[in-house]
C-alpha cells in the first residue's frame, strides 16, 4: 500500500502558468487526511517552494520537501535542514573554467540565494530566478571560497541552443565528476556525484521506516528519472517526453489537466 507521495513541482503539480489547481490542492488534502506522507521533490531552492507549500494549506503538518534536485531535505514544520550534499570549493573552481568562452555564466545556489559567478545575469537566468521569487546576485570566484553557506548545486543557464552546444561538447567530461542533468532546455545542472532526487528520497524513506514499494512518485522531466525508477509506483505526466513515460507504471493527465489529482484518486484513494 502506498504510504508516501513524492511529487515533482514544475510540469507536474504546477500548470504551465506556475499555478496549483484547486482540484490538485483538494486531492492532496484528501491524501494527507488518509495518512499519506507528502514529499515535494523539486529542483527549486527553498524560496521557490515555501509560497506553494503555504498555498497547499499544509503548513501545520509535519511534511518534508526535497530541494535542489536532491541536494537538500527540509522538514516543513520549521523548515529546518535535515540533510544535505554540497559542492566543494574545488568543484566550483573546476566548473568556472568551463564557463569561460561561452555565454553561459556559472550560477550557484545556497539555501536562500541564487548567485552568478563573475558575470552579469542573462535573460534566462533572470527568468529562472523570477520563478523562485528571487533576484540574482553577483559573486566573485574568490568570495565563493569563504561563503558561509554550502553551495548545493551549480547551473549553466542560457539560450537553449547554447546550452545544447555546451552539453554536447562537455557532458562526457562533466558527467565523470558530477551528476550532470539537463533539467530544462535552458538549464544544465551540476549536482554532487551520486546525488539525485532518488538518493534523497531513498534516504528519507528509510528514516520514515518505509520501503520503496510504499512510495508513489509523479514526475515529468529528466531530473525525475531516477526518482521514478526508485519508486514502487511511478507515474509520468502526459506532458512528459517519451523517454520519461517509458519509466512509468502509468501515464496520467497533463499538468494543465489536474493530472496529480487524477493520480491520487486512482492510485491512492481508490485503493484504501
From TrEMBL:
Q: Pfam family of this protein, just one?
A: Hydrolase_3
Its domain of life reads Bacteria
Locate the coiled-coil region(s) and give their ranges: none
Q: Which GO terms describe its cellular component?
A: cytosol
Name the InterPro entries on file.
Cof, HAD-like_sf, HAD-SF_hydro_IIB, HAD_sf
GO: which molecular function terms? magnesium ion binding; phosphatase activity
Do you know which PANTHER family this protein is assigned to? HAD SUPERFAMILY HYDROLASE-LIKE, TYPE 3, PHOSPHOSERINE PHOSPHATASE
| NCBIfam families assigned to the protein according to its UniProt record, in alphabetical order | Cof-subfamily, HAD-SF-IIB
UniProt-recorded name of the protein: Cof family protein
What's the source species' lineage? Bacteria, Bacillati, Bacillota, Bacilli, Lactobacillales
Amino acid at each position: 500500500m502506498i504510504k508516501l507521495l513524492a511529487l515533482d513541482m514544475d510540469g507536474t503539480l504546477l500548470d504551465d502558468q506556475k499555478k496549483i489547481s484547486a482540484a490538485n490542492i483538494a486531492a492532496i488534502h484528501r491524501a494527507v487526511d488518509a495518512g499519506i506522507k507528502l514529499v515535494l521533490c523539486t529542483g527549486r531552492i527553498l524560496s521557490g517552494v515555501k509560497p506553494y507549500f503555504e498555498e497547499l494549506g499544509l503548513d501545520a503538518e509535519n511534511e518534508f520537501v526535497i530541494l535542489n534536485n536532491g541536494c537538500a531535505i527540509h522538514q516543513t514544520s520549521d523548515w529546518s535542514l535535515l540533510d544535505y550534499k554540497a559542492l566543494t570549493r574545488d568543484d566550483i573552481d573546476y566548473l568556472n573554467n568551463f564557463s569561460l568562452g561561452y555565454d553561459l555564466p556559472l550560477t550557484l545556489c545556497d539555501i536562500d540565494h541564487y548567485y552568478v559567478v563573475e558575470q552579469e545575469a542573462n535573460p534566462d537566468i533572470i527568468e529562472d530566478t523570477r520563478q523562485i521569487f528571487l533576484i540574482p546576485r553577483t559573486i566573485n570566484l574568490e568570495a565563493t571560497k569563504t561563503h558561509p553557506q554550502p553551495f548545493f548545486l551549480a547551473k549553466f543557464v542560457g539560450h537553449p541552443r547554447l546550452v545544447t552546444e555546451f552539453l554536447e561538447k562537455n557532458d562526457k567530461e562533466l558527467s565523470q565528476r558530477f551528476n550532470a542533468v539537463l533539467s530544462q532546455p535552458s538549464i544544465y545542472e551540476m549536482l554532487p556525484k551520486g546525488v539525485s532526487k532518488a538518493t534523497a528520497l531513498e534516504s528519507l524513506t528509510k528514516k520514515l521506516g518505509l520501503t520503496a514499494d510504499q512510495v508513489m512518485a509523479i514526475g515529468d522531466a529528466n531530473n525525475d528519472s531516477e526518482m521514478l525508477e526508485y519508486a514502487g509506483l511511478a507515474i509520468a505526466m502526459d506532458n512528459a517526453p517519451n523517454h520519461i513515460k517509458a519509466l512509468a507504471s502509468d501515464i496520467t493527465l497533463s499538468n494543465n489537466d489536474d493530472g496529480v489529482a487524477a493520480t491520487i484518486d486512482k492510485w491512492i484513494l481508490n485503493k484504501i
